Amino acid sequence: MKRMLSLALALAPLSAWASPDPADWPTVLEEAQGQTVHWHAWGGSTATNDFIAWVGERLADDYDITLTHVKLENTADAVTRVLTEKSAGQDEDGAVDLIWINGANFASMKDADLLFGPFAEALPNWQYANTENSTLTHDFTVPTEGYESPWAMAQVVFMHDTKDLPERLGSMDALLDWARKHPGRFTYPQPPDFLGTTFLKQALVDLSDNPKALSEPVNEDNYVEVTAPLWAFIEELTPLLWREGRAYPPTGPRQLQLMNDDEIDLAISFSPGEASTAIANYQLPESVRTFVLDKGTIGNASFVAIPYNSGSKAASMVVANFLMSPEAQLRAQDPEVLGYGTVLDMNALPVQDRAAFRTLDLGIATLSPEELGAVQPEPHPSWMTRISEDWVARYGVGN
């Protein structure tokens, strides 16, 4: 697979590359020196913010690059900023140099020609990427085509406090049955929060009788039929939620706080190592463990992309390349730091780096790769947008 990608890159016409040319890495490094990268990334997690700060320190020391974390509540805000600049004719030195992105936001930027590239598969550390995993080359079914670079793997898990919920739940039907017996002990972040919408997607995938439809754009002809199991499930679940579904935690971290305060026994996460990281940081009790559903759970990759009008394209590529480095990937996978899954292929790594990953303690509540089981593909990004809007229309914003 890697040879085929390399051959494709070598045969690509020079006009396929925007300036600076990522294939000329020495020139990229030279141009990157002294540049400032405004990385627009979600800022709702202290652990993630600390990791980004560490990345900035490393880039400053080794490459004379200044990394500024522009903390977002919603990635769409950065997308809107780039679109506004394009509409105003600001095609150089835009406010956004790098975006933590995936899903519908990536699809919309790609469709609107708002991205620099392709660049990702020319980065030096791409040689270590696990390209056998199509998740690194397809974002919510949309081919990335080198316009975004992966830096973290995610898969849905459910965190449960074993003091009150000792056994795993194998399906959404089982979750509903448990909620009937234990009302008020579960909730999820309020859509359109990403994690809250992920719960809706996971329920849809687990309950769906027509999974093929989810890999294609939303079709109005069958939308009601395809989503009927989801809304029947949500309708029955809602009054059984924390505060009877009249209020929701606004974010994932707030959901963890509810579990730590013993207000709920079950929570959703998109990071298999989050529970271990939270336990290490005293944000969750040591009795918390994780599980996945019998049919598997949704998985995807987190990416970074460079807007077409960034004034620091060279330095942004250096940031993307560093995020894929064995050093950064190992730190991100450490449950005492982030607990994120790696995008790297262990067999492609140098022996010393491979050993470091294999000896890393993933934490008391982290499932092994074997225990994580099958990864369910993300639905087409249009499903996330549509069911989120539908949920808001049906259930409001909570009080």
Automatic annotation (TrEMBL):
<dbReference type="Pfam" id="PF13416">
    <property type="entry name" value="SBP_bac_8"/>
</dbReference>
<feature type="signal peptide">
    <location>
        <begin position="1"/>
        <end position="18"/>
    </location>
</feature>
<dbReference type="InterPro" id="IPR006059">
    <property type="entry name" value="SBP"/>
</dbReference>
<dbReference type="InterPro" id="IPR027020">
    <property type="entry name" value="YnjB"/>
</dbReference>
<keyword id="KW-0732">Signal</keyword>
<protein>
    <recommendedName>
        <fullName>ABC transporter substrate-binding protein</fullName>
    </recommendedName>
</protein>
